[in-house]
Design brief:
- There is one protein chain.
- This protein has about 260 residues and is an all-beta fold.
- Helices cover about 0% and strands about 25% of the residues.
- The protein has an eight-stranded parallel sheet, with no helix packed on it.
- The N and C termini lie far apart (about 50 Å).
Amino acid sequence: VSNCVLTAGHVRHTGDGVYSGMLGGNLYLCNAMAVDCLVSSGSVENVNGAGGGVNVAMTGSSQLLRCQVTGGYRTGPSVTRVADLSGGSGVYANGSSLIENCLVADNAGSYGAVVLKNGAVVRNCTIAGNHDNHADLNGIILQGNCSAINCALYNSTTNTVGEWGGANGAKFENCAASMEIVGGSNCIVLPQSVSATFRDTTSYCPSASSLLRDAGTCYLGTDKSLYGVDLRHRARFVGKAPDIGCHESSGGLMLIVR
């Protein structure tokens, strides 16, 4: 799937009394790929409190590349636990799935905006502005042998558990969050002022003085041609290292006064 707008999809899940159920209100990928898509306003309704992947559900060797995932919302009874396949108001990724150069924003109603399980990877993504998820878990949850690399987390939460799960900090590499990722590798804490990090809360592009600039890790080595393009199709990367998040800054202007 490429260059598509997927919006207002809805799934109703009865679950027959069990909690698990990976749904995908707008998009369900099984060993498949979605590229350059807008996935918005997906919803799931659960009669038993389950419901994973409200906007996007991924399994197998699926890939979600350069996509915006926004406005997902789960309705139904309160979720009573973080059950298998039952999280991710934005994206639920299982298996060897990859989420890369994506913006996941303004999703609500489940456990975590992004949930990774069993080897899934999220890389160079911005997960921001997600809110009203259960137990204040508005950011990312990693279960099993998963990893987050070069990702920016800036969500409506009041504690580390809500932002990055509060556990498995060692699975985060060169990430930036509004709260300290304890045990993370080369991770940074972002200022509490949104404007110090982002130009706005719609695109979540880095501001001129953002700590996200050139703060990522060169996970493919120093050959810039291997990194492709960011969410806006700008070359990744242009400085000494990739920026953290889904957007790559194009650099500043040089003014010469004679």
